[in-house]
Amino acid sequence: MAKFIAVFFVVSFLFATQCFNAEELESPAEAPAINKNGGEGSVPIKECPKACDFRCSATSHKSACLMYCNLCCKKCLCVPSRTYGHKEECPCYNNWKTQEGGPKCP
């Protein structure tokens, strides 16, 4: 019985480790071509649609996300690297607010 429990925990640990590692990896085909240094000016205007397609790929409000993301990208020349969060990579993108004080960029 003790062997079974030990094997179960080892297999569970290995499975959990693989799941977390798989989430951290991004396919180079999916990720937009952006400057690895990030920051403002790292995305040329012609690359904004591709970067925003990736940024908005996980949202249920795709058309609104794409509209605002492209607007922000064209102003800031930067889009955060993942589908959610990481706005600290793009200060302009992060700090542009609506009249009500909410975030303008998705």
From TrEMBL:
Question: Do you know which InterPro entries this protein is assigned to?
Answer: GASA
Protein name from the UniProt record: Uncharacterized protein
Q: Which PANTHER family match?
A: EXTENSIN, PROLINE-RICH PROTEIN, GASA_GAST_SNAKIN
Q: Choose any GO biological process term that the UniProt entry carries and state it.
A: gibberellic acid mediated signaling pathway
Alphabetic keyword roster: Gibberellin signaling pathway, Signal
Q: Does the keyword Manganese apply?
A: no
Q: What is the phylogenetic placement of the source species in the record?
A: Eukaryota, Viridiplantae, Streptophyta, Embryophyta, Tracheophyta
Write one Pfam family the protein is assigned to: GASA
Q: Which family does it belong to?
A: Belongs to the GASA family.
- Give the domain of life: Eukaryota
> Where does the secretion signal sit in this chain?
1-22
Keyword Cell wall biogenesis/degradation among record annotations: no
